[in-house]
Amino acid sequence: MEEVRIEELLATINELLEKKDYRGLKKELAEIYPMDIAEIFEEMSEENCVILFRLLHKDLAAEVFSYLTANQRKSIVSAIH
């Protein structure tokens, strides 16, 4: 995806996280391609990645998980347990 678009999405997601607007985050994430969500995760803190991952619909979460790095996967699995 275009770098500018990822930066815009990241800014929107960070703003929603700051406001703790989880309903808005869930809606925003549902509109983004799984590969792009994985790319956004690369730019976020581990804590925020876990929050976002938990907001994903089960099917979308599974697809996003497949695009994550091994370290990102370990972090998410550890945090969820």
The overall pLDDT, averaged over residues, is 92
Helix content: over 70%
Distance between the termini: 32 Å
How much of the polypeptide forms β-strand, as a percent range?
under 5%
Specify the structural class: mainly alpha
Work out the radius of gyration: 12 Å
Oligomer: single chain
> Strand tally, please?
0
Instruction: Please outline the major beta sheet.
Output: none
In DSSP terms (H or I, runs of 4 or more residues), the helix count works out at: 6
Can you summarize this structure?
The protein is mainly alpha-helical and 81 residues long.
Layout of SSEs?
Elements: H1 3-19, H2 22-30, H3 34-42, H4 46-55, H5 58-67, H6 70-80
Helix pairs in contact: 1-2, 3-5, 4-6
Provide a descriptive summary of the structure in words.
The chain is mainly alpha-helical and 81 residues long. The protein is built from six helices and no strands. The longest helix is centred in the N-terminal third of the chain and has 17 residues, at 3-19. The model has no long low-confidence stretch (mean pLDDT 92).
Please supply descriptive tags for the structure shown above.
single chain, 81 residues, mainly alpha, 6 helices
